[in-house]
Amino acid sequence: MAGDAGTKAQVGLLSALLAFAENLRPRQWTKNLILFAGVMFSQTIGEGLFFARALAGCLIYCFASGAIYVFNDVKDVALDLQHPHKRLRPIPSGRLPVAQAVWMASILSLLCLVAAWLLGPTFAAVTLVFLLLNLSYSQWLKRFVILDVTGIALSFVLRAVASVEVLRPVSPDIQLSKWLILCTFFLSLFLGFAKRRSELIKIKPAGNETRPALAGYTEPLLNLLIGITFTMTLMVYTFYTVWPTTVAHFGTTNLVLTLPFVFYGMGRYLFLVYRGGRGGRPHEILLDDWAIQLAVLGWVAVVFMIIDLRR
User: Which of 32, 45, 205, 56 is nearest to 134 (CA)?
Assistant: First the structure.
């Protein structure tokens, strides 16, 4: 009997761990690829130590953001039960008990902070702010119109900052570009408002008030905000490619050649939002849409060619 109880306990723990791993939402970890922005624009991605630190930073943020998803689902379990898809997640479905989810996510968050400290105190500080901001988002910010998407954008800005801070312990001269901050901020706002529009169209008519902030949005308002942030993202990125400090850093004005890939990628995303109804999950689009994948790969390839030609 004792052996059977021990076996059941082991099976239960394994099931909880598998459910916890699922709740970390690995398919959304593509958001953390921005942790490689620092090595790309500092032209150190080909150097082993720099790449290793960027990779370690990316992994830390993958697990840190995963822990936030768990805390978020614990907070929203009642709302998620009303959602046609979210109710199938591990916590609302009952496959991952709330108590286990909380202590597992807490331990994972602590481990992320310890790992971040090993990469540098400033990087750890940014990671701590990232965790606190996202916890605040899960608890309060996501309930308020505009502020909810702004919170998401600031989360991406912190990722961009972390991409530089993870490198500074081995290269103090690496600078944090204001253009990286601005591009990240406006692009995140653009994606966030497009996601809200998709949610408004799909969820609100069905009577599922699964996201409180949606009650304050209207389709015309979101269309306006999407248009503004689309324009601002392209404008800021264009200014970045031709700005004197950028030209001096890379020794060329050829970065402007990457602009068509940015425009097409964002335009393609808008097409999917307005015609395909797929804006609710931007990370899924990056993984599934071949046209956006080609735009991203084309942008990366041109950037690398420009950098390599100048070295």
Answer: 32
Please report how the helices 2-23 and 98-119 are oriented relative to each other, as an axis angle in degrees rounded to 10: 60
**Rounded CA gap, 58 and 266, in Å?**
24
Could you tell me the CA-to-CA distances from 194 to 23, 90, 189 in Å, in that order? 24, 27, 8
Strand runs (DSSP E) across the chain, as ranges? none
Give residue 104's pLDDT.
92
Q: Which CATH architecture has domain 9-176?
A: Orthogonal Bundle (1.10)
- Percent helix, strand, coil in the chain (nearest 5)? 80, 0, 20
Provide the pLDDT for residue 207: 43
Q: What whole-number distance in Å separates Cα of residue 161 and Cα of residue 127?
A: 10
* Residue type (1 letter), 272: L
270 with 277: CB under 8 angstroms?
no
CA 288 to chain centre: 17
Residue 233 has a pLDDT of 96
Q: Distance between CA 61 and CA 38 in Å, rounded?
A: 14
pLDDT at 4: 52
Of all residues in the chain, the percent with pLDDT exceeding 90 is 44
